[in-house]
Design brief:
about 280 residues, mainly alpha, Herpes Virus-1, 4 strands
Length: about 280
Amino acid sequence: MQCTLCQKQLLYSGKVRPNVGTFECGHEFHLSCIIEHCKARHTNACPQCVPPSSNTFVNFSDDRYTALQTLIESRRQRREVKSDVGFLGGVTGWFGKSVTLSTLVTSGTSLNTLRVQGFLPEDFIEHKITWGKLTKVYTVDSLLEFGFKWHHMVVMGFCPEDFKSFTWQQLYTTLKVRAPDMLKTSIDVRQLSELGYSIQNIKQLGFTFSDFLKMNGTVKTLRLLTANLNDLKTYFNPSSDDWCKAGFSNERIKQNNWKSDDFTPVRQKRPLTLRTATNSLDF
């Protein structure tokens, strides 16, 4: 039998059909051919029963965009991919039984395939799939392209260690994450330092010295962010009380190898000299 899409022969090996997709009407095509055909036309119709000429392409005008979103939403309602309905709805897929979204993720099913099937980020939340599980299978770039936003990640159990998989551009520009968002993950100063951000980047995110104190910031841990006391003074302008709460003293500054450039947050003690005045009386 011949695939009418590529005009090449369909190959069988006994009952094994490694690259064959069958519609409910009985028409068969190369699975790779039918996937590309249906993805390009946003349809799940058999190309022999419904000729390609009758399928319209998406032109992204407002009415077409609305129609496409409606189609995706209707597909999203199907929570399982069943054996008689494959990846493209009507094509017998690669599974012999009902498969959950979690199983599809574990098996490495591409995000493009899941998108065509109609899955949205909210579906991953409903299936209790953690952000950590996703990043073990997919790249951050592909997940952002799929449509994941910061609020999705938080609900999916985003933790401080997960920040390491993001570039500064992805975090600050794409997701628009700021200090208050990061603090909600219970990140501490040590974990913040492990991200490798400059002190200027940390200030740009909106962190304050008060935030550092809440994040277990001390004379020892703040040294992980910068080696120079002037940086803390210039960018965060802590009060005398803030310095004290963080444990800064002359002794501890030296112990942790801080560079001061003639600046020290500790008020220097000045020796007091008492002068006695003698009054002389003339008679």
